[in-house]
Design brief:
The structure is a single chain. This protein is of the alpha+beta class. It folds into two domains: about 1-65, no CATH class; about 75-280, Alpha-Beta Complex (Fumarylacetoacetate hydrolase, domain 2), CATH 3.90.850.10. Helices cover about 15% and strands about 35% of the residues. The protein contains seven helices and 19 strands. Strands 1, 2, 3, 4, 5, 6, 7, 8, 11, 12, 14 and 17 form a twelve-stranded mixed sheet that branches. The mean pLDDT is about 95.
């Protein structure tokens, strides 16, 4: 299934994407509102009703797709998880980490799949990072690598927008990763059962139509199962938690091409769809 949050007629709802339509799931969600986190916590119970829903249906062209999950408890991301990106970072003087390097993106940065991304007045080094993200579906702790896929609800496209000058002011990266609007995700959550192998997806990023990044998720240094094992050693993962899995080479800081107002950034991942965001100046 492809699960989305959308707005139509001033009302926000959760829907199921079928072709070029969205099926409004409000009638089958029993008053759960528009919280995808709440839905994912009960997905096993609700799945038969969601799969069977056929109406009411709306053309996708008539709705506004929103961030598929807007209220996660955590938004975690791993740094330098593709070898070519680690190499270009090392060439710029950033040492390659000897273990998984994690940081927080504050959840207030979450943005819609086609909404504007604000270039803040406080930064002149706004950068893009195409990433595969996944969302946790089961509350879990101490998950083995072998069992890790069982706790994944689904996958989505992410742009880990980064203010590089702020990133390097703090060794935790959090400030540079968390400006408002700098977490566009979507366009929907593709549930795990629809993706044969999340470690074999093709990912590209373009700026104004110019290709800047291209990779396969098979090139990760630490795959998503190793990531879950590592994180769950430290903390309990909850339904709705977002985990972004790293970006490949070709980031703007390495090319000397930072984003500026008017630029349009598009991230495509095979089987999952695409997001596209225009960069606008902070007012």
């Amino acid at each position: 299934m492809k699960l989305a949050r959308f707005s139509h007629g001033g009302v926000t709802s959760i829907g199921k994407i079928v072709g070029d339509r969205v099926i409004d799931l409000t009638p089958v969600l029993e008053g759960q509102g528009d919280s995808m986190r709440s839905l994912l916590a009960d997905l096993d119970t609700l799945r038969p009703w969601i799969e069977g829903a056929e109406t009411p249906a709306l053309p996708l062209s008539e709705v506004r797709l929103l961030a598929p999950i807007h209220d996660p408890q955590k938004f975690l991301a791993i740094g330098m998880n593709y070898q070519a990106h680690a190499d270009e970072a090392a060439a710029a003087g950033v040492p390659t980490p000897k273990s998984q390097l994690w940081f927080n993106k504050q959840v207030s940065c979450i943005n819609g799949p086609f909404d504007d991304v604000v270039a803040p007045k406080a930064s002149d080094q706004v950068d893009y990072e195409a990433e595969l993200a996944f969302v946790i579906g089961t509350r879990c702790r101490h998950v083995s690598r072998a069992d890790a896929r069982n706790v994944i609800a689904g996958y989505l496209v992410c742009n880990d927008v980064t203010a590089r000058d702020w990133q390097f002011r703090s060794p935790t990266y959090t400030l540079g990763k968390s400006f408002d609007t700098h977490g566009p995700i979507g366009p929907w959550i593709t549930t795990d059962d629809e993706v044969a192998d999340p470690m074999a997806l093709e990912m590209t990023l373009t700026v104004n139509g110019e290709e800047r990044q291209r990779t396969s998720t098979s090139d990760m240094i630490y795959d998503i199962y190793a990531q879950i094992e590592y994180l769950s050693t430290v903390m309990t993962l909850e339904p709705g938690d977002l985990i972004s899995t790293g970006t490949p080479s070709g980031v703007g800081i390495a090319l000397g091409k930072f984003l500026k107002p008017g630029d349009v950034v598009r991230v495509d991942i095979s089987q999952l769809g695409h997001i596209e965001n225009r960069i606008v100046a902070e007012r």
